[in-house]
């Protein structure tokens, strides 16, 4: 039994509740009276409530995010029905802004806005001492990071074996991009580097091989960035995988040198491009040096083994279909392994809302609050691009069709135009964007490329079969058997770790053979 229960719904089982671990680590003398319970969005709210109530808590702290707010609203209502004596405290980015407008906050006892690392413990102490706070909405000031207890010891062996391990060296962002919540912070605070490295050393010693840094601008402070990369390079072992969010136009020579020393598949960089239209970027206060950005991405693709994940946004104010298409083609030409095509979302509190009237923006009132239409895209056009984004993720980003994907625009020249034609055709055939089996998707690609695009069937069959075997598959689909001899094979491939299997499928065979050797 626990007086305090911390709980949330992760988007997937492999994710871990980083924020709740900070709350638990900073409970001080109350930590022994608390328990962390993690669930995911695929679990039934009643089952979640049952597990929480079984702890007989006096206080329940819930982490609320854009991906779980709908289910969390149901969970809060159920908790209040079955155990009204529980004090419910909400926190997280989804309830830190526009608090009064949200049904979930109406049912809670308290809402802590902002970074609640220390404030949650303070509120718990008051509640348990029968001196509850007078105000329902409690604003937490940003803590001095040197004063925080770091949460890394709270990752257990099950987390290490099955979950992504989140870490951070800094918080905040110096940029003011209006679509992002980080634009409200305006500054960057850093944890003491010695403390961060000491915890990373202990995590490595416990067997952690997968680290995801949640810093918004990891390479802002070059000295810290290089020190952490050098730390991992000196301790590299097969299977090490590091994920960073990088500023794409900030990659000086000394940073390039250390990045290039890592073997293929060890590093993933998430780089936010969002738009190549300078007028759009200026309108939303996003500063980017496009020539330098392109030079850096070319360097990473040509001279390193970094897995590049780049982001573009559909629906930014002033971005037309033609402008987005040109930017998409420009990004495809730079060769990132993954391009995430995101639909503009109206996150609570972000300043991009100031453009809504001028650009006639309409958002869905339901999470994730995606744009439904604006002055340049009607609803039908937005639905079409939502399907484009989903199919791009299934075909191009998945790594299942690395060689096949470029054939979709080989006769057209424009990657956007070619993939949009395929997207339209695929939806006409399937009338859905989910639950398409891999073998069926391969067969549909074969049909489209040979019958609609007019490409030579035996050549397409050979490419599809090579792609289909990526990751170790050997069950040749029926439609390929007439075109591909049974002896045709790309050979066995090393089984990838399930937590980054997707990235491994993008590795070329040559790079994969040298994956165990440092440069």
**First-residue to last-residue Cα separation:** 52 Å
CATH topology of the largest domain: pyruvate-formate lyase- activating enzyme
The biggest beta sheet, please?
6 strands, parallel
Gross morphology is globular
* Total domain modules: 2
Name the CATH superfamily assignment of the largest domain: tm_1862 like domain
Rg for CA atoms: 24 Å
CATH architecture of the largest domain: Alpha-Beta Horseshoe
**Overall pLDDT:** 94
Number of alpha- plus pi-helical segments: 19
Helix share bin: 25-40%
CATH class category label of the largest domain: Alpha Beta
Q: Estimate the strand proportion.
A: 5-15%
Model regions low in confidence, pLDDT < 50 over at least 5 residues: 510-519
Widest beta sheet: strand line-up: 2-1-3-4-5-6
Briefly characterize the structure.
With 519 residues, the protein is of the alpha/beta class. The protein has helices at residues 18-25, 45-53, 69-82, 103-107, 119-128, 157-162, 193-205, 222-234, 253-260, 278-283, 290-303, 321-334, 356-359, 379-397, 415-430, 438-452, 457-468, 501-505, 509-513; strands at residues 4-10, 34-40, 59-63, 87-91, 110-113, 137-139, 165-167, 170-172, 188-190, 210-213, 241-246, 267-274, 307-314, 338-343, 362-363, 371-373. The chain has 19 helices and 16 strands.
